[in-house]
Known about the structure:
The protein is of the alpha/beta class. Helix content is 50%, strand content 22%. It has 6 helices and 5 strands. A 5-stranded mixed β-sheet has the order 3-2-1-4-5. The protein is globular and about 40 Å long.
Amino acid sequence: MRVLGIDPGLRRLGWGIIDAEGSRLRHVANGVCESDGGDDLATRLLALHRQLTEVLTRFAPQIAAVEQTFVNKDAVGTLKLGQARGVALLVPAQFGLPVGEYAPNKVKKTVVGVGHADKRQIDHMVKMQLPGVQIAGPDAADALAIAICHAHHVGPQQARIRA
């Protein structure tokens, strides 16, 4: 089963794709969709949509997962992140994929074993679970962690449904 993980962001939206067969995981690809901070919001969201659509067209995942948005002190920033998250949910849905959602602490607990792990710990554990992976940056590492989390939580259920 091919799993897409997405770490939403307006400037940098991380994505990671893994193949899961039982408990075995294999890295397929990872990267970052970027938007230009100088563009208006609609143009930035369209850029993310186009790039993420290309990822799904190229790699044909079967299921997807997106990290849930957390609320912070900056309401405008939170709203913009929510809009980027909307793109992250929309594109897989346009491809007919079921989309899971995970809180950041759930992803960290699943991948690292600790709900408040930092970026270095996530990167390290993703590399341990996907030997030889070359990660395209912290956003892509987070996206791979989301894909791993989804494979562990939903993968066996999806495999039984499809069989």
